[in-house]
Amino acid sequence: GSVPAAELLREESVRFADVGGLEDLKKVLHRLIVMPYVRPDLYAKYGRRAGGGVMLYGPPGCGKTLIARAIAGECGLPFFPIRIEDVVSEYFGASERNLADIFEQARANAPCVVFIDEMDAIAYKRHRAGGDSARRLTNVLLQQLDGVGSDTTDMLVVGASNAPWDVDSALSRPGRFERRVFVPPPDDDARRAIVETLLHGIHADASGATALAARTDFYSGADLRAVVDRAAEYAIEHALDTGDDQPIGTSELLGAAAEVRPTTLDW
Ligand code: ATP
């Protein structure tokens, strides 16, 4: 398993301001994770402390990773991602060793925000009954998280899952991933921010972002990317056919949206 390169461990620069819309969600996470880290004195006064994990869940492509980065950015900490492909190996015992090694690295780089993507794959609940290597992997994760519990202010753990019902319930006990926070499909403002980012730096009419955002309820960030890609194909086709390389406009974007199904409806 590979581990994150050292350059990933610079202080994260993404902030909540870079996450479009989702104002309620940002407020909840600010109170739940960011402020306990930034103002431990205040929380200690009331018997609360920083740390403990939070699990972000919701349909794919809706900003869980971006939000986790923003949590790190708001805390002024580096972001330390753990991806399933860094962990899972077909060789006997290697997955467990990889996971322990990665946590070791994270600890060596604390304070940091550890992000565990695809929690359902690392700690799949039915594996507990089995006694196979996947169950041992869940146990390694539990051990590592309990280690974090002793001095929680230097390692914040954020998990993410598209299938929270498949995550071993042992992970939701106190001190682990006590809090689950739903990351909904992007709202109007979030979609506008996403589309503006996607159109930035390509030959497009920026006003199309507002029009597209208004017509794409239930589209994920990933779906919106597919829409913009399709609209770009229209513009290229038009330029090749006519020699007129006009910017991607509202009509191309809305035409493309009609051809891309919003995937969050399947979730
Ligand atoms: P998965 O579950 O597939 O891992 P995810 O929920 O982690 O997906 P991201 O990878 O964070 O989703 O988001 C998908 C894309 O949409 C990214 O390019 C991200 O920057 C963008 N995006 C999603 N939500 C927002 C938002 N609210 N504001 C700005 N960009 C967003």
What does this structure look like?
- With 267 residues, the chain is of the alpha/beta class.
- 47% of the residues lie in helices and 9% in strands.
- The protein has helices at 23-38, 40-45, 64-75, 84-87, 94-108, 119-122, 127-130, 133-148, 188-199, 208-214, 221-242, 250-257, and strands at residues 54-57, 79-82, 112-116, 155-161, 179-182.
- A five-stranded parallel β-sheet has the order 2-3-4-1-5, with helices on both faces.
- The structure holds adenosine-5'-triphosphate.
- Keywords: ATP-binding, Coiled coil, Nucleotide-binding.
- Residues 50-187 form the AAA+ ATPase domain.
- It comes from Mumia flava.
Structural class: alpha/beta
The number of helical runs is: 12
Rg: 21 Å
What is the helix content? 40-55%
Number of β-strand runs: 5
Query: What ranges have pLDDT less than 50 throughout 5 or more consecutive residues?
Result: none
Give the amount of beta strand, in percent: 5-15%
Order of helices and strands: HHEHEHHEHHHEEHHHH
- Overall mean pLDDT score? 89
Instruction: State the strand order across the main sheet.
Output: 2-3-4-1-5
Distance between the termini: 30 Å
Ligands bound, unique: adenosine-5'-triphosphate
Backbone shape: globular
What can be said about the biggest beta sheet?
Answer: 5 strands, parallel
